[in-house]
Amino acid sequence: MSSDQMSRREFAGAAAVAALSPFVAGSPVSLPVPARGRAGALRVTDDPSALAKSLAEAVRVQYGDRLSADDLATVTRQIQSGLERASRVRAPALDNGTGPDAVFDAVRSRA
After folding, report:
1. Higher per-residue confidence, 79 vs 44
2. Percentage of the chain modeled with pLDDT above 70
3. Which is it for the CA torsion 99, 101, 103, 104, positive or negative?
4. What's the rounded Cα separation, in Å, for the pair 42 and 47?
5. Element (H, E) at 71
6. How far apart are CA 46 and CA 73, in angstroms?
7. Tens digits of per-residue pLDDT, 45-90?
8. How far is Cα 5 from Cα 13, in angstroms, rounded to an integer?
9. How high is the pLDDT of residue 31?
10. Residue 53 needs a FRET pair 20 to 30 A away by CA distance; which of 83, 92, 105, 107 works?
11. What is the pTM of this model?
12. How many Å from the N-terminal Cα to the C-terminal Cα in the chain?
């Protein structure tokens, strides 16, 4: 193995650190998303959608004994924010022949 390639053990360690990094700083914090006035921009709604409420209810059923009312409200807001972002990602119409913007290549170039 050449010196510029990562070993399996190094890769596993890096993947573990990346997976745990959101939890190192403590509890997750809900960051406010600014509302924008132009059309098609991300907006924060005070009233979550029915889907967000349903998903939050599923979280409450599974983890309700460990969550306070404020925690559940935060989870509901985060779910709603995620649903809004997902709808923005799906919004642009793509033709069947539209290729990806970037192509992943797992082999490192030898420069």
Report:
1. 79
2. 68
3. negative
4. 15
5. helix 69-90
6. 11
7. 568 888 989 999 999 999 889 999 999 999 999 999 999 999 998 8
8. 14
9. 47
10. 92
11. 0.49
12. 17
The predicted pLDDT at position 81 comes to: 92
Helices 69-90 and 50-63 meet at what angle, rounded to 10? 140
Tokens 């192509």 locate to 103
Which token pair is 47?
């009233």
Write the CA distances from 72 to 1, 5, 26, 88, 91, integer angstroms: 49, 44, 17, 24, 28
Residue 24: what pLDDT? 56
Write out the two tokens for 39. Answer: 């059309």
Give which of 3, 5, 1, 8 is closest to 107, Cα–Cα. Answer: 5
For residues 25 and 17, give the distance between their C-alpha atoms in angstroms, rounded to a whole number. Answer: 13
Taking CA atoms, 44 is separated from 48, 59, 64, 82, in Å, by 9, 21, 25, 11
Token match 């779910």: residue? 79
Please report the pLDDT score of residue 35 as a whole number.
52
